[in-house]
Amino acid sequence: MTTTTTAPHGASAAREIAEAVTVRFCGDSGDGMQLAGTQFTNTSSIFGNDVATLPDFPAEIRAPAGSIPGVSGFQINFSSHDIHTPGDEVHALIAMNPAALVSNYKDVVAGGIVVVNEDAFKDTNFDKAHLKSNPLDDGTLDGFRVYRVPMEKLTAEAAGAFGLTTKAVNRCKNFFALGIVCWLYERPLDPIIRWIETKMGKMPSVADANIATLKAGWNYCDTVELFPHAYRVPKASIAPGTYRKITGNEATALGLATAARLAGKPLFYGSYPITPASTILEELAALMHMGVKTFQAEDEIAAMASTLGAAFAGVCAATGTSGPGVALKSEAIGLAVMTELPVVIVNVQRGGPSTGLPTKTEQADYLQAVYGRNGECPVAVIAAATPAECFTMAMEAMRLAVEYMTPVMLLTDGYLANGSEPWRIPKIENLPRIKVKHPTSLNGDEHFMPYRRDEFGARPWAIPGTAGLEHRIGGLEKQSVTGNVNYDPDNHQAMIIQRREKISKIAERIPDLKVEGDADADLLVVGWGSTFGAITTALGKVRATGKKVAHAHLRYLDPMPKNTGDVIRSYKKVIVPEMNMGQLLIKLRADFLVDAQGVNKVKGRPFLVSEIEAAINNALEELAK
Amino acid sequence: MKVEVPVESLKPTDFASDQEVRWCPGCGDYAILAQVKKVLPTLGIPKKDFVFVSGIGCSSRFPYYMETYGFHSIHGRAMAIASGVKVARPELCVWVVTGDGDGLSIGGNHLLHAIRRNIDMNVLLFNNRIYGLTKGQYSPTSELGKKTKTSPKGVLDYPLHPLSVAIGAEASFVARTIDRDLKHMGEVLERAAKHRGTSFVEIYQNCNIFNDGAFSYSTEKDTKDDTRIVLEHGKPLVFGKNRDKGIRLNCTEPEIVQLGDGVTEDDLLFHDEKAPEPSLAYLLSRMHHPHFPEPIGVFRAVERPCYENALADLVGDVPEPSNNDKELDALFHRGDTWEVTN
């Protein structure tokens, strides 16, 4: 569906032009803040802004209402130019209760806008948030522009006429808040109204109540002239094409489904629900009509094992999980390495170790991906840098798996998974095709040789149902070529080397590592995965001050592009920002003998642009000494 | 160059691989291998469509000895791997070979879930009540008090009974047979192969090295007629050398009765493998030596939809890859889209 956009009707206030704005909605996890944020993102995308989002929700579904652990937030950065991060500082905060306010107001810029649901600021809620006084009155918010709106009372009036229960009426208040923000930033209401009609069409009174509340929020601003002026964020100038908004997990699911579809094969996706990877399983479960078979396994181990079984049977096979799940899958990943079958393992990384921070983001599974199995057990490891890039890299993971007959680990993270950005919808003819070869005749004189390799080191993918190629594979060491069980010492070492070389050879058919920024700088920033946005933005800011700095972002982590060593050795100084304690750093230092320095943050939250900027400036100062 | 043997001329020897069989001399596994090779050619299925999947343990070497597609996997995971094979390609004929340790200990969870999904595969659980490959530790089916290398004072943990577990997991086909009774084994394997859904077969298998004679009560000529009872659908439960004893229900408990003196076969429990509720099959699975004769044969055989077929009914065909794939293009354009022009 293509939408033409109209400006909101009758906006009367003066407009101030803003280039980029960051808004954060926060409230109880039951207040519908994720929904308000998502709808605001959609309408901003459709309006023509570039967008980047950061949902931040608690691990508990419904922590006690009004408590700080129960606060759920959704941040969106929308802009008239190209943006890469959800924004460091918040320009407008919408807080639905005291707990949400006190846990979020510190991120608001000095002089920024704070809109509160005044009805929730009462003694019982102060107690739940462990507050001794009303933060609206005790000076907490000095220096901000605070707008008190009795949202619950106004929602009751707007939504009360549709025969809903008091509780159901009160649940509409997120749309009142959304109406306010739409007025403030001149967002069109049509896409939101259309969404409500589609999603709630079966309950017309609920849909009507929400639409009325949304409009009431907008009209309230217009009528009482709540804000002295509104803001206009003009459309961004981005590459022409048809766009939609996409989250990382949506893109991963779509990439896997598309790769299989263009290989002319069904997709088998075996998975066990785990935050933050579950939505990939959910997305794919909705694509059965496209030839996708999802299998919700009994545990992580069975998810991996069934996926391997499906690969043996001859379909495109993938599984997805997060770090703790990878730990459980590791033995079966080792079996996939030994049996040299094509499987994709998506790790949507979250805060660890152990259960860690399920809903927060981290990049601390890099070494697990590269080395985390028993024995010499190499798999190909790649990583997506942005939510939309998850589509491309999921397709690439499947291509590598099938062409090299190997497990491929695709690393994303919670920030990419739940974050969203506009995705330029590709033309099918421009997408890569995976060429699948299944042998139908013998490759040996008398017997089929399951471990006779091709020029890439890949073994043949002979599948059950092919007459004459019956063969056995398994986890015991294989004799080279024949695949028979073999305990010969020289054969074992030869097979170890063959398995490693097969992965290393992938470097011959992947793009070189590109350097962005000033190729002649003395300082190189090397990143991987979701730090891309913060690094790119920070680089732009530093270079705008006339300083020189370069950036190389690794999408291929094992093997790395074949020019990686040359690139990083050619700079005087190399810094490596990572949301871990320095894992890629260890690998770069070990593989290339460079004195690279880590910039490390492990807080369950992505880097702020300002943090990378500071790290770059520090490094430049050290170079100048 | 090998030539494919037509289905109707397949012989047991066509299913023998070129690998040397390496079980200990005298192991019960040999008899099972021979019977499986005998049954497969009778099923009318081309050799290319058989897949044997196993885990780890002595029994799990089985696929190496079969000239079919085979996957010798990792400890306990055969059921999960086989589930993936069958769900991906429902037209294949999938067999799982496992043991009491592989299937009920490290792989217990997968066994339960494959059975409840009723995925159409044939599961042969070789029960020898011991860990053989790791050389003599107790297994989850070892009897209480059994002295092994890891239970020098006798086993303390209560054993599982494989058939009770399978019935509890909603199995649609449950049977038991014995490595020494070749004819019976052949019949049970054939029934299992023809059943649609997960066929769970416990095979009493003698490990002559680490647990010799574990089932001798049910295999020795002079005792077996009194210690086992052969189940037949619709027939009364009669046993004994002179077929003069039977099993009668006393309220909900089975009891052994002597036929004659007013007790006739009509008073006995009649076997009904098709009973909608599994209560009778469960009751039979609880009859253990030495208190009762142990039933062999088909305990339960009911029809229930198979997961992989139900799923396949929902899944669309994959067309030839095309730049004009309208379905894929529509998927790309799902939800709100917007045009950006220069």
What does this structure look like?
Chain A is α/β, with parallel strands linked by helices and 625 residues long. Chain A folds into 3 domains: 15-232, Pyruvate-ferredoxin Oxidoreductase, domain 3; 244-430, Thiamin diphosphate (ThDP)-binding fold, Pyr/PP domains (Rossmann fold); 515-624, Rossmann fold (3-Layer(aba) Sandwich), CATH 3.40.50. Helix content of chain A is 36%, strand content 20%. Chain A has 20 helices and 23 strands. In chain A, the strands form 5 sheets. Chain A has a 7-stranded mixed beta sheet with strand order 11-10-12-13-15-14-21, with helices on both faces. Chain A has a 6-stranded mixed beta sheet with strand order 3-4-2-5-6-7. A 5-stranded mixed beta sheet of chain A has the order 18-20-19-22-23, with helices on both faces. In chain A, helix 17 (532-544) links the parallel strand 19 (523-528) and strand 20. The longest helix of chain A is centred in the middle third of the chain and has 21 residues, at 204-224. The model of chain A is unreliable at 1-11 (pLDDT under 50). With 342 residues, chain B is of the alpha/beta class. Chain B folds into 2 domains: 7-235 and 271-314, Thiamin diphosphate (ThDP)-binding fold, Pyr/PP domains (Rossmann fold, 3-Layer(aba) Sandwich), CATH 3.40.50.970; 236-270, no CATH class. Chain B has 11 helices and 12 strands. Chain B has an 8-stranded mixed beta sheet with strand order 2-1-3-4-6-5-11-7, sandwiched between helices. A 3-stranded antiparallel beta sheet of chain B has the order 8-9-10. In chain B, helix 1 crosses helix 6 and helix 3 packs across helix 4 (108-117). The longest helix of chain B is centred in the middle third of the chain and has 13 residues, at 182-194. Chain B is globular, with a radius of gyration of 23 Å. The termini of chain B are far apart. The model of chain B has no long low-confidence stretch (mean pLDDT 96). Strand 9 of chain A pairs antiparallel with strand 12 of chain B, so a sheet runs across the interface.
